[in-house]
Specification:
Layout lengths: L1 E2 L2 E7 L9 H17 L5 E7 L22 H14 L2 E2 L13 E3 L4 E3 L4 E5 L1 H4 L4 E4 L1 H8 L9 E4 L3
Parallel strand pairs: 2-3
Antiparallel strand pairs: 1-2, 3-7, 4-7, 5-6, 8-9
Helix pairs in contact: 1-2
Length: about 160
């Protein structure tokens, strides 16, 4: 969808299977080719959704599962290639430095840092608008209870 020069898309990447990750890798490759063929890197483009990829593993002392379609090194490499080739940046990482990381759960015994599968990516033209991106955990607590960090809606104020 395009509104006032801002192109907005939402995707859902396949979860994949550990024993056959190739369809997921192909999906990322097709998305990269599509984005490169349909717009300029300088355009104001937002791409968000559930990419089913963890760039870093942040839960549990044992580390990531040995075979995980969301933490596979080849999948992470394809996601990084998508960002590099299309000029898309993780807008959530641009949050103010004084904000607490909402993906941290402080319990009685430990402090867990949860990972996220959802991303909001934007081109430099969007970054220049000085966007504020957050996850709506208040809404998610109502919908998901104690697992509020699962499927929290992403909210973005992209400025004028």
């Amino acid at each position: 969808m395009e509104v006032d020069g801002l192109e907005f898309s939402s995707v859902y990447a396949p979860y994949g299977k550990s024993e056959n990750i190739q369809p997921k890798l192909d999906w990322f490759e097709c998305l990269t080719e599509h984005l490169n063929s349909t717009g300029s890197r300088a355009a104001q483009r937002v791409l968000c959704g559930d990419f089913n990829v963890l760039l870093e593993w942040r839960v549990g002392p044992g580390g990531p599962p040995k075979k995980s379609p969301v933490f596979c090194k080849d999948v992470r490499a394809k996601f990084r290639k998508l960002q590099d080739c299309t000029g898309l940046h993780d807008l959530y990482k641009r949050r103010p430095p004084d904000w607490e990381d909402p993906f941290i759960f402080k319990g009685k015994q430990a402090c867990l840092k949860f990972s996220r599968l959802e991303y909001m990516l934007g081109t430099q033209g969007v970054i220049d608008r000085d966007p504020v991106v957050r996850f709506d955990f208040d809404y998610s607590i109502i919908k998901n209870g104690i697992f509020y960090w699962v499927r929290a809606p992403i909210v973005a104020d992209l400025g004028d």
